[in-house]
Amino acid sequence: MTTHAPQASHSVTLPASLDEAVAALAAMPAAVPVAGGTDLMAAVNAGLLRPAALVGLNRISEIRGWQYQDGHALLGAGLTLARMGRPDFAALIPGLAAAARAAGPPQIRNAGTLGGNIVTAAPTGDTLPVLAALEATVIIAGPGGARREVPVSHLLAGMEMLRPGEIVGFVRVPLLHAPQTFLKATGRTGPGRAAASVALVLDPARRGVRCAVGAVAMMPLRPLDAEQWVASLIDWDNDRGLAPEALTAFGDYVAAACIPDPAPPEDGTEAATLPPAALHLRRTVAALARRALGRALS
Fold first, then answer.
1. N or C: which end of the chain has fewer CB within 10 A?
2. Per-residue model confidence as pLDDT tens digits over 76-109
């Protein structure tokens, strides 16, 4: 269904399927897809965006739920944060549910969607570090019924881009049936934008630890060396024990990897030090990473 206002700039199309949405975007290349609109409307209200047309995605039922598929969960991009925060979803992917519950006040969680978080790719997006730690992939719908699958991290890093007429339709997440944690620090009490966040996932089958740090850079950061180091210390065969000093060292390792010291000057003069704000952020990340791993192992 399409309703046309007197000017093209007010055209709104409401497709009933993913392929109809792709066709609408192909017919109107300047159109912008919209689901919850929490980021889009903020940009419009701030005068940063004036979309020529909108393609509404809220009537596409196929992207508003989830299904099981070969040891994975196939999540619709239209899943709201509020829906992901419910107990049944938390039993499925606890880290993602925790991030969804922390994403902001109820009005934001009721409207905001998983796909919107990914496409907007705001550095403070709470679901993004969890998706990075889970090594999730996105299924992108394109013209002619085409589908392609790329890692979420590639999309966030700009290694892959949405092509004209494409829409993120689904997110594929491995079901690890293992501890997952998400923690974040904000600048105020209660829901708010993250100053830093940490997602941590244990993968007992591969004896691995996966960690992603959000909000400190333009995309979630994976401290791979820290992951491999701490995984080698965990007693995977018994109680997954880890010495307390190793927890502390892991937090420091993660923080230093994500907020490194300034490079030494080429002229041999004394190296610069991190400013106080960066040092505080590094301590925050260290504390979050330490607590996240401790909770996952407990």
1. C
2. 999 999 999 999 999 999 999 999 999 988 888 9
What sign does the dihedral 128-149-208-255 (CA atoms) show? negative
221-232 pLDDT, tens per residue? 999 999 999 999
Instruction: Give the separation between CA 77 and CA 20, rounded to whole angstroms.
Output: 16
Tracing tokens 């030494």 back to the chain, one arrives at 264
Which of 54, 21, 18 is CA-nearest to residue 36?
54
For residues 240 and 37, give the distance between their C-alpha atoms in angstroms, rounded to a whole number.
Answer: 43
- Residue 248 tokens, joined: 């502390």
Closest CA relative to residue 26, chosen from 147, 140, 139, 143: 143
pLDDT at 4 over 70: no
162 with 119: CB under 8 angstroms? Answer: yes
- Tell me whether strands 180-186 and 194-203 are parallel, antiparallel or unpaired: antiparallel
Tell me the percentage of the chain whose pLDDT exceeds 70.
95
